[in-house]
Amino acid sequence: MEHKEILEVQGLHKHFAGREQPAVENLDLQLTSGEIYALVGESGCGKTTALRMIAGLLTPDEGNIRIRDREVYSGDSMIPCEQRKVGMVFQNASLFPHLSLEKNVMFGLKGPGRAKRARAQLFLEQVGLAELGKAYPHELSGGQQQRVALARALALEPDLILLDEPFSNLDIRIKTKVIEQVRTILTQVDTTALLVTHDINEAYHLADRIGVMRAGSLIQQGNPAELYHSPADSYVADFLGTANEFELEELQAIFSTLPTHPYGAVDTPESGTQVILRPEDIELVPLSQAQPTSGESVGGRIEGVTFLGNRREYLVKVGSVKMRVSTPSHYEIPTGSWVQLTLKPEVHQHLLRRVV
Amino acid sequence: MRIFLRLFMTFLITLTVSVTLSAGGQSEADSDGNSGSGNAGEVNVYSHRHYEIDKQLFTEFTAQTGIKVNVVNADSDELIQRLKTEGELSPADLLITADVARLVRAQEEGLLQAIENETLKERIPAYLRSPDGYWFGMTKRARIIVYHTDRVDPQQLSTYEELTSEKWNGKIAIRSSANIYNQSLLASLIANLGADQAEEWAKGIVQNMARSPQGNDRDQMKAVAAGQADIAVVNTYYVGRMFNSDDPDEVEVAQQMGVFFPNQKGRGSHINISGGGVTAHAPHRANAEKLLEFLTSDTSQRLFAQANYEYPVVPGVSEAEIVKSWGEFKEDRLNLSELGKFNSQAVRIF
Amino acid sequence: MSNRRVWLLILILLTLLFLLPFAALLSGVFSSSDSWGHLSSTVLPRYIGSSLFLLLFFLFGVYSLGTVTAWIMTRYSFPMKPIFEVALIFPHAVPIYISAFAYRGLFNYGGLLHPLMPDFSGPWAAVFLFIFGLYTYVYLAARAMLATFGGQFIDTAIMLGKSEWALFRRVALPLMRPAAVGGAVLAGVEVLNEYGALKYLGVESFTTGIFRAWFSLGDITAAIRLSLLLLLTVGILLAAEKLQRGKAGFVSSGRNPSPVVPLKIRGVKGALITAVLLLPVTFGFFIPLLQLLLWTVDAPLLQQWTELAVITADTLVLTLSASFAAVSIALLLGFIPLLFNGGVTGSLASLPSLGYAVPGAVIAMGVMRLSISADLAINHLFNPLISPLRGEPLGLIFSGSLIVLAGAYLIRFIAVSFKPIASAYTSIGGVYVDSAATMGRGPVHSFFKIYLPLMKRASLFAGILFFLDAIRTLPLTMILRPFNYDTLATVTYELASDERLKEAAPFGLILVALGVGVTIITMMLSKGKRKVIQGA
Q1: CB of B1 within 8 Å of any CB in chain C?
Q2: Which pLDDT band, with edges at 50, 70 and 90, does B103 fall under?
Q3: Which of A197, A321, B261, C314 might form a disulfide with B329, Cβ 3.0–4.6 angstroms?
Q4: What percent of chain B has pLDDT over 70?
Q5: What is the pLDDT of residue C149?
Q6: Hey, what's the torsion of the CAs at C273, C279, C284, C290, to 10 degrees?
Q7: Per-residue pLDDT tens over the stretch A42-59
Q8: Dist. CA A355–CA A245, nearest whole Å
């Protein structure tokens, strides 16, 4: 399959009147065919503004937007939303409440009624709701509504599907399931999709690639693992998951085996450099079961614990610093116990990149 | 959705029909005005008089002449403003008011035109029409004093001026000064006695009022019957109408009233007319004149007199029985246009 | 986006159209006035004094009556409650000028209640009529507020051992205040704008003053100045209301609805409550209705029936068409801001609603000036071409036509239909416009296919409210109506002010009956609405 560019955004800029900061600043994005990309960030970071500009619901101040081979926005020309061939699923599904599901899906279609109906049926089938065509939106669960909204968008065979926080109103219980269904559907029809969300877990579940936005700018993008293990800064690190943050010297003082010039890097990192350790990067063993210590291990005292179902996260005090360390969930160590911490070997491979 | 479309269509149709009707009505009027074919056209009347008898007479006029009479009924002040605003485009042909002052005002504002009509001149006495033919009286009424026959000795009554004397303190019922009839009465006092004395008089009347002014003349008589006041200042035809009312209560009220014509030993009782004038830009001037002639015919005059208990303006036409029973009286022969002249002064005094 | 500019243009043009008559009036403020000096030194203080008197006692009375009835209807359940549910709104269906003449007839010589009190007129009578005719403004607003948010507060206070009186005074009254004040202010605007009843009762006010200056003194400039003064007063009232509401909104915005569970009352207390509620229904509705019925039965009718039918039909055609136009325009006005995410367009769309604060006579004045200017312009432009063909000039086209009368209704009352429609738009939001756009459908499509069907109920509601206000409007109709044209309101008023009460009664009765019918429909509609929301 060719990896053709579907969406190309260059230098997108939007500054709302009366605001101090621009909402979106010099944003560049590329999505290739079939790719699912998640734009994540806190609310107010500009991700929805960016999405609305791509959709054509909002006029940018500057920049270029190309969808497939068409320039839909440049400084002097603008193709209106209606003609961009983008589909969009909104936060609250925005199914038309007075129309049956079938009619909802038919809404944007053109051509004779029978053809439209058949096509609507086809796409309702695609999202697994074939038998509900005559039902009305209020009879559906939130997840079903979002699937209909997706069917409605897909039925128009858009070049690009825009997903604006479509899962944020769903119950936690069903959220993952719905996301997975959506991912399956998107993959099946081989659509390019751009998701906007504040919830990194949605991005993990759905996206091939993630971009993190902050205060209007895209600060890092890449595949999920890359971002998780090699965040560009402590903000990204924190956004993608729990992170222990140290100064490099601090960490070296704790784990004495860490060489001062450790990672095969060419240059010695400057002093004051930040380093990040994920909770699962560290192995935790009660002192009673501890192996004879090498220089890689260090002792610490448990200050607190959070049970998270599939794991436990211990807050451990080592000397003057505290760090979060995760263990399998059956590990039960009383608070106040002394434990031995060891840096996992694979961590060394990441550490260099992890330097902020 | 479909319901909405249908509603929308209904609305459009209604709109179209009403536009067509109103436009049709106008164009019909326009073409009739000058075609002179079998259909004799129409005449547009702005009238303050909203009496049943007027409607009947208009119908009768149409039956006789084929000229359709279109009427807008409203307060004469409003009609004058409307005429003024409409200016040269006004569709009105005839302005009918219930008071001479309004006719004079319309004349002064340039809203009426002078008519040379021999029939009208001949039938209506000179003091009841404008010397230059701007307006013509249609009916005549006197503003008089009624008293409760049990409580008041008519010997005590004499003139309008005398109503301000101490003895009537808290005894007089009279309608609001905003009313034209009272304004014209005051105007006649200004004309006869001068502004200063008239102002004194107005103050004296306010002092002697039995209650704050309210309602129309009929109400004043009811107040007298109810014992709230002893005497009231009213127009003659109100007494006649109440006397002949379908409502037994009103008849009962009227039966307790005595009619007194003031100033009989001096200048006579204050009279006023209701009348009409042809408007300055009348599109159907000839028809308007015809209508005026019709309204001053003996038959019409008699009907006015019989149905509405007004005095005919045409000499020799007989009054209604009840009106006749009050007897002849001396009229204040002040030229009625004087009332108009002093109207705005009167309004300010009140 | 360029097609959105077209929408913006439509919005601006519509708004301008609504404001044009006011501009036509304003142009006359600065011309010289003969009688202004006289007016401002002598009668103006009187008008102000009288209007303030009315307003002060009215506001006090209407506030008390409205909040007490709202409290009783929310807090208690008693055997007759379902009846009062409807009956308490009925007084709203009786135009004030109609109850004015009914009461006067009642107390006049020969009237049923004449022996009790020989006279019914003056400012106190007016205050009485206004309170019992307009308390529904306060009652409905206060009740909605209390019933939605009062539950937890009342429960808390009960647990703290407060008496019923304390509950009302310390809990319910403060909670109802913003809504009640809002309702009272709207009712106050009605009082300031009333003409017919006040003239009939012999009470001077601003509005009668405007009429006097314009018509009796023929001084349009003075009339316009008076109207502006009145507008200013109304503006201050509304601004003050907005200010207090702003504070209240801050308090109640984050509050969760907490409905009041009514307390069952039987026996003596129940009878007492019923008696209290009977007062406004009796004074505001049954007494005038009974009087009208008595007169109607007694009236020398026969020949009047056809007239009655014709005038009723005329009135209905005019008012219904105007209502339909009002709803259509309100739908459009409310829709356009959705395309622009509100902001300036939102304020622009609500500008036409200003007409609600302007007395009917003032609007009539502006509309007449405007239509005459339009006619003059058309005549000057086209007469040279058309006159030779037609043999005479075009003459009046707009002036004195039903279209202009209906237009004046729109200007005066568009706010009434705009309000429910705008709030329905707000609750639906603009998301469907966006969502349709991403499906390749423009605003026109989403207006007709999505919003119109969704606005059905709100539109019907808006139409009904407009209808109720327009059908009874008096001075405006009297000034602008065409030849040979009467509405129920004008006939009723004219006959009544000529003291031909028995003849006036059937016309007034139909007006009241229409009002009652419409009120019942409205009640049923808003009931249904509640059910739908609960079901959703």
Answers
A1: yes
A2: very high
A3: B261
A4: 88
A5: 80
A6: 110
A7: 988 999 999 999 998 888
A8: 10
Q: Is A110 exposed, middle or buried (0-12, 13-18, 19+ CB in 10 A)?
A: exposed
Surface of C (199-258) touching B: CB under 8 A? 200-202, 208, 212, 214-218, 220
Residue B331 has phi, psi (to 5 degrees) of: -95, 145
Answer whether B7's CB lies under 8 Å from C324's CB.
yes
The answer to whether the CB of A60 falls within 8 A of the CB of A53 is yes
C75 touches chain B (CB under 8 A): no
Q: Does the CB of C472 have a partner CB in chain B at under 8 Å? A: no
Which one of B31, B62, B85, B99 would you mutate to disrupt binding with C, by most C Cβ within 10 Å of its Cβ?
Answer: B85
Residue A288 has pLDDT above 90, yes or no: no
pLDDT at A274 over 80: no
ipTM for the assembly: 0.76
What confidence score (pLDDT) does residue B139 get?
94
A171-186 per-position pLDDT tens digit? 888 889 899 999 999 9
Q: Which two tokens stand for residue B253?
A: 């009220």
CA distance A343 to C40: 93
- Tens digit of pLDDT for each residue in B107-154? 998 999 999 999 999 999 988 999 899 999 999 999 999 999 999 999
Are A153 and C439 an interchain contact pair (Cβ–Cβ within 8 Å)? yes
Three-state SS at C470: helix
- A17: closest chain C residue by CA: C343
Of the partner residues A78, A82, A98, the one whose CB lies closest to the CB of residue C437: A82
Cβ contact, residue pair C439, A138, below 8 Å: no
Residues of A in contact with C439 (CB under 8 A): 87, 107-108, 152-153, 156
Residue B162: partners with Cβ closer than 8 Å, 6 or more residues away: B262
Q: What is the rounded CA–CA span in Å between residue C272 and residue C295? A: 32
Interface contact B186, partner C, CB < 8 A: no
Mean pLDDT of chain A: 86
CB B89 to CB C499 under 8 A? no
Low-confidence ranges of chain C (pLDDT < 70): 1-3, 110, 118, 245-256, 299-304, 342, 390-393, 527-536
Residues of chain B positioned with their CB less than 8 A from the CB of C479: 74, 78, 82
Q: Do C456 and B216 touch (CB under 8 A)?
A: no
Are the beta carbons of A108 and C442 separated by less than 8 Å? no
The winner for highest mean pLDDT among A85-99, B203-217, C279-293, C416-430 is C279-293
Give the H or E element holding residue C107.
Answer: helix C96-107
C155–B contact, CB cutoff 8 A? no
Residue C306, C-beta contacts closer than 8 angstroms, at least 6 positions apart: none
Pairing between β-strand A338-343 and β-strand A282-286 as defined by DSSP bridges: antiparallel
Whether residue C215 and residue B81 make contact (CB cut-off 8 A), yes or no, is yes
Least confidently predicted of A66-70, A196-200, C174-178, C301-305: C301-305
Residue B30's pLDDT is 39
Please report residues of C whose CB lies closer than 8 A to that of B91: 395-396, 400, 483
Q: Are strands A77-78 and A70-74 parallel, antiparallel or unpaired?
A: antiparallel
Separation between Cα atoms, residue C398 and residue C21, nearest integer Å: 14
According to DSSP H, which parts of chain B are helical? 2-35, 52-65, 76-86, 100-108, 118-123, 180-193, 195-208, 217-225, 236-243, 248-255, 285-295, 298-308, 321-325, 337-341, 343-349
Q: Is C380 on the interface with A (CB under 8 A)?
A: no
Neighbours of A306 (CB within 10 A): 11
Residue of A nearest to C456 (CA): A98
Q: Counting one residue from A and one from C, how many pairs have CB atoms under 8 Å apart?
A: 59
